[in-house]
Amino acid sequence: IFLNTHRGKVKAIGISNFSPKNLEILLRTAKVVPAVNQIEAHPYLPDQELVDLCKEKGIHVTAYSPLGQYNSPIHKDSDLEQIAKAHDTTTANVALSWAVQRGTSVAPKSTNEKRMKQNITLLKLSDAEMKTIDAISKDPKTSTRLNVSAYNKQTKRVIGWTLEELGWDVGFNVDEA
Fold first, then answer.
1. Maximum distance among all alpha carbons in the chain?
2. Which residue of 5, 75, 115, 158 lies most exposed, with the fewest beta carbons within 10 A?
3. Which of 99-124 are b and which e, b meaning 16 or more Cβ less than 10 Å from the residue's Cβ?
4. How many C-beta atoms surround the C-beta of residue 166 within 10 A?
5. What sign for the dihedral angle of Cα 62, 128, 117, 148?
6. 8 A C-beta contact, residue 84 and residue 94
């Protein structure tokens, strides 16, 4: 028998942008463990510590901006280009395949019908290819958030929050841009 201690009020919740710090704070008092945490995640920001923590707690991770935003450096990344060439596909397909193969779902944004069809055709990457992609974010120049539309360069805040308040240890490499 399933005992519903919440009297039908909450069956599932989803959260967004919860870092390990803020997820731990939430889980101390939450009566319902979130079903999903939607985060910015891509080869430049794999956030593996958070993905592992979510998996440990039974929380699925969905990656928004899995390819960055318009004109993203992911599309021109030399490691991704090399893997894409070997599979006769695009860097976008490689990045999406990497994300799904590591256990996250992806929510790529596109209004282009051809790209939408490409985005659902994933490939199987080798262990060596996965390690190559995992290593991309180890370079401080590529370890960055790419969803810059949420970032205020002057105040160094994301929709009013500091990176510290969000619990993010990786920010935006936008000062050079």
1. 58
2. 5
3. bbebebebebeeeeeeeeebbeebbe
4. 17
5. positive
6. yes
Q: Report the pLDDT value the prediction gives residue 24, as an integer from 0 to 100.
A: 94
Taking the alpha carbons of 74, 79, 84, 87 in that order, is the dihedral positive or negative? Answer: negative
Nearest 5°: phi and psi at 51?
A: -60, -45
51, with CB counted inside 10 A (0-12, 13-18, 19+), is buried
SS3 state of residue 60: strand
pLDDT tens per residue, range 70-107: 788 999 999 999 999 999 999 999 999 999 999 999 99
Binning the chain into helix, strand and coil, the percentages to the nearest 5 are 40, 15, 45
pLDDT over 50 at 177, yes or no: no
Closest CA to 43 of 104, 2, 85: 104
Find the helix packing angle between 48-57 and 20-29, rounded to 10°. Answer: 20
Residue 78 has phi, psi (to 5 degrees) of: -65, -40
What's the pLDDT at 43?
A: 97
